[in-house]
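Task 17 of the worksheet. Students: predict the tertiary structure of the chain below and write it out as structure tokens. Keep your answer in the requested format; marks are given for formatting as well as content.
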Amino acid sequence: MSSTAAHGDDHQRVAQVREHLQLSQEKMARQLGLSLRAYANYERGERAVPVELVRALYEQFSIDPAWLLTGDGKMILDRDVRHRLDQKTLDNVIVAVAQIEQRLPMPLDATKKARLIGLLYEQCQLLGESADEILKDSRIGRLTRTFR
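Model answer:
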């Protein structure tokens, strides 16, 4: 067993979530697919809060993982935030990034490619323009040159 001090206050926030949801430990454990004993150990800080529990709390109740682990921010994420991804825009951005890659001497590594997709997607969302229109902007041309 590990000590409570080694885990910070995340165990207290796990209990705070359950209390906020007005669930018993038994019902909370069942909702998360855990045994009552395992769940109670997390709340008491007798076991470290695993990534699987953080993920389950996020997926089941929209609990902000950053808040759960650090206490910063709000407990519950705005449910709309989880569902704002515009798939059509993302698909267009991925096609645009593939076109950029074709002009490069070698493919982008995964990190740079993900960063470029994120930047272009964000610009599409902020400006309300298509990826093709944004790629015509000379500033984006300079940006994509930095990925070479």
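Marker's comment: The mean pLDDT is 79. The two ends are 49 Å apart (CA to CA).
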